[in-house]
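batch_manifest entry 22 of 60
target: FAD/FMN-containing dehydrogenase
source organism: Polynucleobacter victoriensis
requested by: lab member K.T.
priority: normal
notes from requester: please return tokens only, no post-processing; we will run our own comparison against the previous entry in this batch. if the run fails, retry once and flag.
--- input ---
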Amino acid sequence: MALTDQELIAGFINIIGQEHVITNSSDLEPYLIDWRKRYRGQAIAALRPASTEEVSAIVKLCAANQIAMVPQGGNTGMCGGATPNPTGRQVVISLQRMNKIRELDASNQTITVEAGVILQALQEAATAANRYFPLSLGAEGSCCIGGNLSTNAGGTSVVRYGNTRELCLGLEVVMPNGDILNSLRSLRKDNTGYNLRDLFIGAEGSLGIITAAVMKLFPVPVAQWTALVAVPSAEAAVELLNRFQAGASAQLTGFEMMSDESLALLKHYYPALASPLAGPNAYEVLVEISDYESEEHATQLMESILSGALESGCATDAAIASSLAQARKFWDMREHVPLAQADDGPNIKHDVSLPTSAIPTFVATCNEMLRKKYPGIRIINYGHLGDGNLHYNVAGPSSAETESFFVNRSKEIQALVYKEVEKLNGSISAEHGVGQQKVDYLKGHRGEVALNVMQAIKRALDPHNLMNPGKVVSL
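--- output ---
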């Protein structure tokens, strides 16, 4: 016979202590709503375990009583993947207290961390050991590595180092029945059967709860040079990317694009971060080169490529950062575009990826189609052009009108944008995940066979659908 809610709460208290079982409505509220305030649910409690063993005990108790579980890290997700549903028959399992760095092996260039370690803390631990951890996001001061793994986060350095999946060597996972899968091996080569690690990365807690991970570290670059470059079109931005890929190869670590409307929004809400380039420009591109040879070599490389780009016309203006402070300001520009959007009000977000060669066609087609159908809209288009990932976001004609515009037009605009993504063999989710926002689009995007395979995996590992139900794969 299943336990009552009060009996369950008593069981949770017995596992992790009363102060870490949150049931008071005001204290519970932050765990029930997503960062964008688009999704809100209810929960029996929010639970804050401090160890893998405590997570395992919680999961076993929930499994025995058919209580669904929603894992949560920094709660910075964009698609409602860490938000409970409205039924009130779920618990939120927050991993924030699991924030230990278990081991840093500088010689092996690995770091073993618990899921609740803040991304910035991981970066700082690597720096203290004279190593470099390249994953970098706008939310790095609050997002957790477990969440980064669960959505296979990308960020600004994917063009050189890859997504979070490529940075992970091993995982520790609590399975839906409470068993602990320990695959915390710090090996670059390990061909012993199925690659279980990749099954859980990007699964958003729907197959198990990631509690720890072994992540790769890298040598610290000798020099990093950053430039802000004006380009006259999306086609020119792709040509500039091709020039840097040919001239800098693996030394190209960042290539970010911001449209004129993105820059205008940034200037309005953060005037101190206005672009130093004369404008308006159709796009401005942020380029970073990391060099392991010398500062002189990095400087010559950056100047040589930019000189050719300016001469060809694919670049019309450029500013190379003359100091670390100026380089940081250039990056602050890019990272504050989504914050300016948040200040402006709700917007219709699209986190899409496309073959880089198809981006100009996608942008031109969508811009024309949406502007014709919805006069006055603002298209805030920016993102990681180096790896084909655009944040193609749509806002109402003004901040005062954006709320009603968002509510009334969201689904139809998403459908139009996703249709163009499909035509160009792109993806409807590049780095934000599926969560609950994109579940209904998954069958059309991945196809029936792929969805059937995913559902079969879900049923095999989580037959009672207790792990973050309603997210990623719907049963």
